[in-house]
Amino acid sequence: MTEAVIELDQVSISWRERLAVRDISGAFVRGTLTAIVGPNGAGKSTLVKAIMGLVSPVRGRIRIAGGQGAHMACLPQIVEIDRSFPVTVYDLVAMGAWGRVGAWRAFDRLEHDRIEAALELVGMADFSRRIIGTLSGGQLQRALFARLMLHEADTLLLDEPFAAVDRATTDDLMALIHDWHDEGRTVIAVLHDLDLVRTHFPQTLVMAGQAVAWCETAQALTPENLHLARHICAGDYL
Ligand SMILES: Nc1ncnc2c1ncn2[C@@H]1O[C@H](COP(=O)(O)OP(=O)(O)OP(=O)(O)O)[C@@H](O)[C@H]1O
């Protein structure tokens, strides 16, 4: 089955009058595991935000199967998390269930069990009462993965999930991503580690404002495509 869950039709997105993403067309197919790679400033995060409906394209269309926001959840860049906010790990993870429960209603036993199970899966069961400001980068990222799980979304977008985490945490969290993929979910992750992409991600979108390649990873991550992406982002072809 090759049903598109997210379809991009000549999508351009601007940031303060400048195009950050230019004329990207293609589809993320249901159940696929796709990496988005590219140099700094290539428009990767901007594209993720547009797919989540947080910014609008200036040209083109983004079609989401089931409508904008349907069954999608996003792991933001860790730098976007306000770690000074006085919230416990448990409450941070519980926020993932707000879509079902609402922000102000008490959690029932089922939601509580879901939160505990997610904390257990990410290896954070013993940290549930800790304030998030006291966590290491890797511990916070584990907690954010648990929050993402609470959404029970069919499509998951992760923006640099392994930035500032150690190898062991990367391996544990990568195993969770494989579990989601095995369950038939669509997973899209912005990544910088190309070896990790080659090992784990069957599909890759190489960005440099525009799409340089969007296909099977071995064909996308050629030296030519990576060279081209670097030069486009450096402004050599303007
Ligand atoms: N919130 C923002 N503040 C400043 N510039 C932005 C912002 N959002 C987008 N831009 C600009 O849009 C372009 C694309 O940025 P974006 O963050 O999407 O790239 P990226 O590929 O995710 O980069 P990185 O790998 O460095 O995170 C850049 O030129 C950037 O300066």
Automatic annotation (TrEMBL):
Keywords for this protein? ATP-binding, Cell membrane, Membrane, Nucleotide-binding, Transport
Coiled-coil zones: none
Q: Name one GO molecular function term.
A: ATP hydrolysis activity
Q: Does the keyword Transport apply?
A: yes
What are the ABC transporter domain coordinates in residue numbering? Answer: 6-234
Question: Please, which domain of life does this record's source organism belong to?
Answer: Bacteria
The keyword Signal belongs to this UniProt entry's keyword annotation: no
The family this protein is said to belong to: Belongs to the ABC transporter superfamily.
Designated name of the protein: ABC transporter ATP-binding protein
Q: Which organism is it from?
A: Allopusillimonas soli
